[in-house]
Amino acid sequence: MDNNKVLKKLISTLSSYNSKQSSFVDLFEKNPVLSKAIEVFNDDIDSMIYLVFDQMGIPEEDEDNKYERKNWTRDVCFSLIHKAAKNDKYVEPAVELIADWKRLRDYTSKVDSHSWFYYDHLLEEHLTGYQAWHKQKRKE
Q1: pTM of the model
Q2: For residue 99, which of 52, 32, 132 has the smallest C-alpha distance?
Q3: CA 41 – CA 46 distance, rounded (Å)
Q4: Is-contact 28 37, C-beta < 8 A?
Q5: Gap between the Cα atoms of 64 and 106, Å rounded
Q6: In angstroms, how far is CA 135 from the centroid of its own chain?
Q7: 11 in the Ramachandran plot: left (φ > 0), alpha (ψ -120 to 50) or beta?
Q8: Could you read off the pLDDT of 66-93 as tens digits, one per residue?
Q9: How far is 130 from 120, CA to CA, in rounded Å?
Q10: Higher confidence at residue 75 or residue 33?
């Protein structure tokens, strides 16, 4: 199975898990044992995401630490997966960005402002082919 299919399945699984989890949270929050079970399942889901990153060869440490954060690439990919799991329109752009993780800094540089960026903005721009970035470059 190629990386794109694995990522789509991962996002789909996370989306399904999130919808089921939200119905359990209300029931479980008053019971400390069941509340802890949700935490354990969340950790297991996160571990599954990082296993996919391992399979794809996404390194744990970045060579060029532009944002002065450990594991920047993995953190961004992790957040993109979670954003896509919450909004179906972001599945394709998230998969494309993560599959091309070696160029992730190029993509984020088109939407960053000094040393930060919004994940939603990155996904929206990637979805539209970075129209706002291209428009700004034409003005310059």
Answers
A1: 0.78
A2: 52
A3: 9
A4: yes
A5: 12
A6: 26
A7: alpha
A8: 555 678 889 999 999 999 999 999 999 9
A9: 13
A10: 75
